[in-house]
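Problem 12. The chain below contains 281 residues. Write out its predicted structure in token notation.
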Amino acid sequence: MSHPPAPLMHWEENRALRQFLIGSTAMLLWIAVDLLLPCLPTAYQPVSVSGQMRWRLLTAYLLPAFGLTTILLMWRLLRQAEPAEPGRLGWLGLAFLAGGAIFDVGVTLVCSPDLVFEGNPYVRILLDTQHSLPFVYLHLLITQAGFVTLFCCVWLAFLRHQQILQGSIIDARPRGWAEFLKAATGGAHLNWRQWLLPVRPSEVPFFYHSMWLTTVSVVFGITVFRWYAGLEWLTMPDPSLPLRFTVAASGLALALICYLGGLWFVTRRELMPVAAANKEP
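Solution.
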């Protein structure tokens, strides 16, 4: 028999979840607009080139604040669940996340200490607007430290909430991959039509599940690309925009597969004794 969903899963009852989703989405939209605006055809540009530069410079100044704000919002989510030891997998995840950033930044500073070949748009705008190199270094290190801390907080928070996620899937008793996917994305309480095509607010899957799926996959997908970016500085692969896109897309897909595959393995292991007991006469 299924148990009622945990209160943390409900959008209305989980204030920290609402604040994180709204706050992080707003900051991502700000950055997305800043990055995509110059890509629009000239006829559709809403602001001048100088206006775009001012916006990008403002975004560069705001990046440390964006990182700190998101850390605080994620920290509130982390504290909702019971403390849990990271374990071997947890420590490996932290080493991978921190190692990718250290490798990327370290190789960048060694190969281009004046940052003249740096392609990061926010480092570039600071250099192009005549900010001093020490200021750019300080901004780079603060920003990178903030986002690495955020990525590690996401991973630690997920490990704490993992038991809640697993419990909701186990309670749904999925009988195959499709039912597992529906439960893992917060749709265990919905029928197939509601999950695939919600037409009322009550038919929308729990944001709690999709938030963890998205954030964990994104932070590990970005880190895969950072390891590649460090290798690119060492001229192991030839720099190529299609290759960079392929690596970024592959990293995100791999992280998503690992996330779902890990939950599938753990929940199936928990469900096997239950299924065996139900078959006994």
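Discussion. The chain has nine helices and no strands. Students who got a different answer should revisit the alignment rule from Section 12.3.
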